[in-house]
């Protein structure tokens, strides 16, 4: 495995040793849960949680089109998040908070404390207390070590800790290369669905942290109401959230009961006006976000003409929107319009030069347009900005091969098969290395 993307969590040999060790190995892997104070199976250390987070979260945030570019929104989300995490059970974790440009309705947390909410969910919330409920819930997952606990159970039962390459959601074979280039490394496992028990505990912790920070517990009730309404009226918009955060009427009822009993004497605040003021730039383009949501739904159904219409409407409302430009670029690629797709990808790159996804998409579309030097330049820039994606090495190999530089192409193909030796891409790389005499 290449040293630049090798996981520093637990080696396969260590995992198998733990699995083979039976009861003795499991008992030696127990730890005190910071929330319950009780012992639990824990084969992933806090430092390993942080390391996995640092390796994987940047890829997911980029797949979600990066952090919003309005510093007022970013600072506001961070301020609310810190007010909650500072009085949590693990206040010393390296928390970070952001709103990403994704249009779907969701929020998620990596095990080391990197937390994101999408702009798609921000435009559905009504006040700061609901935002606090959302972030408090995610902080609850970090504090209860839900991801580390799930991974520890998998290690103990199967001896497996290998983390696969996650890819951007798509159901179209023509977008598979694109998706493979944009996914998070291991994000799929780290952000897998929580159990209903985990969700109940995170809800309870979220309400506790809200109360500690001076928010009205009605915020949690309101959050549940908003999500349930969306689930009934626009189920596709909350599909990813409900997949990773199972919802139920029981969770809503529990929030209501706790509001009326445990927190009956709470005098916290809702802060609607402050919330609306601070997310004004996102609320301003809500119609564009809704058009993008519809367009992404059409893309999933392979209705590309319909998707293009929605993305066109979105860009008329918000012509410089980074996510909108990239979505239109992907839509053009899906229709075989590589030249038009490249145009939109380059616009997106100019609009948000610090964000990596546009670099990768520009590289992909440059390949489609046989602009191999431009493709290589963009893949190099992407790899410097966001290292650790094995697909980038594969496409660099393709670029070098097209330019006639066999030695550099072989180097990139070899790097690729060291971390990914299955599937069509690995076969292409392997066949080239054998054909060129680099492998027997």
From TrEMBL:
Give the record's keywords alphabetically: Hydrolase, Iron, Iron-sulfur, Metal-binding, Metalloprotease, Protease, TPR repeat, Zinc
In Pfam terms, one family for this protein is TPR_19
Query: Where does the signal sequence lie?
Result: none
Give the cofactors, semicolon-separated.
Answer: Zn(2+)
Entry's Gene Ontology BP terms: proteolysis involved in protein catabolic process
**Record's Gene3D superfamilies?**
Metalloproteases ('zincins'), catalytic domain, Tetratricopeptide repeat domain
Q: Where are the transmembrane segments?
A: none
Q: Which Gene Ontology cellular-component terms appear in the entry?
A: membrane
Report the sequence similarity comment from the record.
Answer: Belongs to the peptidase M48 family.
TPR repeat extents:
288-321
Q: Which GO terms describe its molecular function?
A: iron-sulfur cluster binding; metal ion binding; metalloendopeptidase activity
The annotation note on the cofactor reads:
Binds 1 zinc ion per subunit.
Q: Which SMART domains match?
A: TPR (SM00028)
Task: Return the protein name.
Answer: Peptidase M48 Ste24p
Presence of the UniProt keyword Metal-binding in the record? yes
Supply the InterPro entries for this chain. Answer: Mito/Outer_Membr_Metalloprot, Peptidase_M48, TAT_signal, TPR-like_helical_dom_sf, TPR_rpt
Q: Where is the Peptidase M48 domain?
A: 75-255
